[in-house]
């Protein structure tokens, strides 16, 4: 099993050039550190570049300035040591749940037997045992997203990126899956970075919240979440952390829901 | 709160269980006892035909009674080697469809994966495509004679283009998200083609194969009518020349029924290959 990774984002900037328009600064001088095994959330308004940042970390885009280091090595392209869960579950509709998760292991150095065992283990981890042969259209939104999480984890990546993975789910399923995500994080010990719009979700899940702002995309605040575990959303200190984050986002507590 | 969400998820899980069909069920669903709704109209037409023939609304030379047609069928089977002509047509269509669609899928994949291949073939194919197969036939017959090869070539050409274009388009329409996923999973180019691109293009390929199979069957009748001395198409035009309307109708009915059977089997094949796809079933 790979050990959890130490991720360093150093002074990362990215611009888009649109012909006939001024340069768009998607990210400007973004720096932060994610300790091995940590759970860090990135919150911020639409267009603050938080999803772009994940694309850079996963290696889908290498046109940026600055450095992204994973265990002191600059990342290059995509790699099995970095996993991602997208907002849309992105399961391939022609593969069963089992095959979808196994696709992640296509190039893993494991025997067929080991692959089957790992796949079964991760299906159990996300609570989908019994649905191995189901096609994605036969799964509910919550189940599909669990499957996507299993696919992201099955390679035992050193770091797992979560790009608003619960954003498209209904409120109840979402709260439930947040609990599941926390349990999975504790079980696997993988370093995780979550991009979300939902401040409650960020506080509930992470030990540190990075707040970003748009135009140009930058970090405006880093808030350590030091709450008794597991987070109780109704507690007074939870509200205090939330107030701090909302203030940093420029919401100043005017609106309680920053979704 | 937690309890409620558990219930919701549990309900979703249950719903999932209910939704899960036995894997073979969808593919064989079409083989159940046929629904009788589709037989009403043919029965009415048959009845009208019988009444029209019995009352001599139309001269029997032009419209023989249904029973006369059945007798003609029997005569053709027992005394005139109808099976021989039938198989001649089937053989031509089978080979033409096989060669045409194989070439089309192979070249369609090549062109779909590489802009350069597409640019190389594009202008030539677009020109050839617009010369109908039947316009090719006279020249091909000069080269290959009136036998089966000329017809196979011409029909294969007509099968080729719809399948080629749909394969190409199917590949080009693969969602970019899936390509990105393949990149994240570090799939090789071959794995990408086999596990992502081809399955994603399959619905479009299957639709064109079904269409092309029907087209091939329709064209064999024309091709045989224009050249050669065997096959259902030849029989139909000969029957017209000899004013054997009963034999003419026998051929027409066979052509219709075989076309129906081809389409149904292609549909079942399509359903089986695309069993992962959830469609609107009406």
What does it look like?
The complex is a heterodimer of chains A (259) and B (282). In chain A, strand 4 and strand 5 form a beta hairpin. The longest helix of chain A has 18 residues. Chain A is an alpha/beta fold and 259 residues long. Chain A has one domain: Rossmann fold. In chain A, strands 6-7-8-3-9-10 form a 6-stranded mixed sheet, with helices on both faces. A 4-stranded antiparallel sheet of chain A has the order 2-1-4-5, with helices on one face. The two termini of chain A are 36 Å apart. Chain B is mostly helical and 282 residues long. Chain B has one domain: MetI-like (MetI-like fold). Chain B is built from 12 helices and no strands. In chain B, helix 10 packs parallel to helix 11 and helix 11 runs antiparallel to helix 12. The two termini of chain B are 39 Å apart. The N terminus of chain B is likely disordered. The chains are: A alpha/beta (259), B mainly alpha (282). The interface between A and B is large, with 37 and 35 residues.
What's the helix and strand layout?
The complex is a heterodimer of chains A (259) and B (282).
Chain A: E1 7-16, E2 24-34, E3 39-43, H1 50-58, E4 65-70, E5 73-74, E6 82-85, H2 97-103, H3 112-125, H4 141-153, E7 159-163, H5 171-188, E8 191-196, H6 199-205, E9 208-213, E10 218-224, H7 236-248
Parallel strand pairs in A: 3-8, 3-9, 6-7, 7-8
Antiparallel strand pairs in A: 1-2, 1-4, 4-5, 9-10
Chain B: H1 2-19, H2 25-28, H3 37-54, H4 66-79, H5 82-113, H6 115-129, H7 133-144, H8 148-172, H9 176-184, H10 189-226, H11 232-241, H12 245-273
Helix pairs in contact in B: 4-12, 5-6, 5-8, 5-10, 7-8, 8-10, 10-11, 10-12, 11-12
């Amino acid at each position: 099993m790979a050990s959890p990774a130490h991720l360093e984002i150093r002074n990362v900037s990215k611009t888009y050039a649109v012909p006939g328009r001024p340069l768009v600064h998607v990210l400007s001088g973004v720096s932060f550190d994610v300790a091995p095994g940590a759970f860090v959330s990135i919150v911020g308004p639409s267009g603050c570049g938080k999803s772009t940042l994940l694309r850079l970390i996963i290696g889908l885009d290498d046109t940026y300035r600055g450095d992204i280091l994973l265990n002191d090595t600059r990342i290059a392209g995509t790699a099995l040591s970095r996993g991602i869960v997208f907002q849309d579950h992105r399961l391939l509709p022609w593969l069963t749940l089992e095959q979808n998760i196994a696709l992640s292991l296509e190039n893993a150095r494991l025997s067929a037997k080991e692959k089957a065992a790992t796949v079964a283990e991760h299906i159990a981890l996300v609570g989908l045992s019994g649905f191995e042969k189901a096609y994605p259209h036969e799964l509910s939104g919550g189940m599909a997203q669990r499957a996507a999480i299993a696919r992201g984890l099955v390679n035992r990546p050193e770091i797992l990126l979560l790009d608003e993975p619960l954003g498209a789910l209904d409120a109840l399923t979402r709260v439930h899956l947040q609990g599941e995500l926390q349990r999975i994080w504790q079980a696997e010990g993988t370093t995780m970075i979550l991009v979300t719009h939902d401040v409650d979700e960020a506080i509930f899940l992470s030990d540190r919240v990075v707040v970003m702002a748009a135009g140009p995309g930058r970090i405006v605040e880093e808030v350590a979440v030091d709450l008794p575990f597991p987070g109780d959303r109704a507690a007074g200190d939870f509200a205090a952390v939330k107030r701090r984050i909302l203030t940093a986002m420029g919401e100043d507590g005017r609106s309680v829901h920053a979704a | 709160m937690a309890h409620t969400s558990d219930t919701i998820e549990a309900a979703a899980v249950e719903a999932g269980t209910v939704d899960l069909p036995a894997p073979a069920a969808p593919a064989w669903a079409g083989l159940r006892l046929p629904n009788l709704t589709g037989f009403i109209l043919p029965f009415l037409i048959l009845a009208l035909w019988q009444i029209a023939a019995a009352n001599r609304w139309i001269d029997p030379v032009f419209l023989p009674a249904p029973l006369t047609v059945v007798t003609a069928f029997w005569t053709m089977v027992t005394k005139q080697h109808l099976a021989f002509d039938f198989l001649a047509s089937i053989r031509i269509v089978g080979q033409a469809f096989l060669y045409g669609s194989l070439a089309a899928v192979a070249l369609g994949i090549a062109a779909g994966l590489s802009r350069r291949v597409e640019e190389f073939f594009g202008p030539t194919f677009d020109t050839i495509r617009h010369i109908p197969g039947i316009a090719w036939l006279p020249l091909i017959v000069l080269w290959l004679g009136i036998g089966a090869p000329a017809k196979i070539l011409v029909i294969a050409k007509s099968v080729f283009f719809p399948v080629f274009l749909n394969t190409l388009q199917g590949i080009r329409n693969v969602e970019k998200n899936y390509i990105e996923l393949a990149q994240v999973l570090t799939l090789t180019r071959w794995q990408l083609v086999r596990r992502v691109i081809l399955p994603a293009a399959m619905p479009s390929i299957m639709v064109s194969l079904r269409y092309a199979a029907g087209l091939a069957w329709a064209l064999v009748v024309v091709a045989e009518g224009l050249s050669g001395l065997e096959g259902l198409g030849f029989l139909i035009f000969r029957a017209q020349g000899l004013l054997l309307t009963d034999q003419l109708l026998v051929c027409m009915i066979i052509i219709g029924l075989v076309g129906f059977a081809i389409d149904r089997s292609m549909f079942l094949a399509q359903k089986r290959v695309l069993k992962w796809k959830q469609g609107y079933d009406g």
